[in-house]
Amino acid sequence: MVRMMKQNEENPWGVFCDVFGASARNRVLEIFLEGPGVDNGLGNIAEETELSRAAVYNVIDSLLEQGLVVPTRKIGKTQLYKLNLGKEEVKVLVKAFDLSLKAIENELEKEAAKKVEKAVIR
Question: Which end of the chain is less enclosed by CB atoms within 10 A, N or C?
């Protein structure tokens, strides 16, 4: 999966990490926020976040304790997790993430309109 909103090589994280910082916890949360209904395994999260499996395990353990993520199903020996969309704090995070993406989308649309306007004027 290509990082959503990947901006450049110096800043490979998305909008959530831009706003709240690219800590291990936020990098893992961002994966879940990009696909709130999608379940992820530790290996996938480690690959996407460029964190070690041990670091991801520790973050997931903390997120489980807080009720922000829940275990969903197992595929073989791999436990999958997804956001706990029933928890109020998660709903706020998802809304903030969606609003941030909408603001970026609006900004990109404005920039595209300016480019079209300049091209028409020429």
Answer: C
What secondary structure, in 3-state letters, does the chain show?
CCCCCCCCCCCCCCHHHHHHCCCHHHHHHHHHHHCCCCCEEHHHHHHHHCCCHHHHHHHHHHHHHHCCEEEEEEECCEEEEEECCCCHHHHHHHHHHHHHHHHHHHHHHHHHHHHHHHHHHC
pTM attached to this predicted model: 0.77
Domain that holds residue 75: 15-121
Residue 9: inside a domain: no
In a domain, 8, yes or no: no
